[in-house]
Each structure stands twice: as structure tokens, then as C-alpha cells.
Amino acid sequence: MRHIHTAVLERNGVFSEDFATEPYEAGWAEEAIFFVRVDAVEGAEPRLSGSVQISPDGIAWLDEGTSLPLVTSRGVTFTRVRHFGNWLRLACTVSGRDARFRGSILLCLKG
Q: Is 0.90 surpassed by the pTM of this model?
């Protein structure tokens, strides 16, 4: 029987500058999906991009190579990752004049 777990990494957060989600220990899982739900967007030419990062210890971080599709408006997007070792997080960049996003980030794991 497979195990499934959803972790809410950001709930109704306001993102106006670069950030990374809280690290999540996921070594037991075989696959992961980061979901990003944007409920509100402000500013001129707002852009939110994200990169999956991995870590052996939750301290030192490396880009895994998987990116989130560029977010410019309200809605839900996702990115999948496999073969990630033990720790995961999503490192995000916010750009655009007075850009501001409000939303949630969830990590769904299957093992």
C-alpha cells in the first residue's frame, strides 16, 4: 500500500521578494509534486518563478534542475520531481515593479 502525505509549506502567504519554503524531510517518498496556488496578484508585470532544491541534510541546498512554470496571474500550477534524496524545498523569485503575490504552496509526497 502506498503512502501519501500533503504538507502545507505556505498558507495564504504574501510574496513580494525572493524566498524559499521551509525545508521538508521527504526521504521516504518516491515522488513529489509542488503545487502553487495564487489567489491574488498586484503590481506591474508581476512574475513568480521557482526552482526545486534538494539537500542531504536540510542545511546546504542545491538546485535540482526542475523549475515551476512561470506564474503571472491567479491560478494553480505545479511541478513534479523524483530522485531527490532526503530534503526538499522550493526557492522562488519575485520580479516586476511592486509585484506582490498572495497564495499557498503545498508539497504532495507519495511513497
A: yes
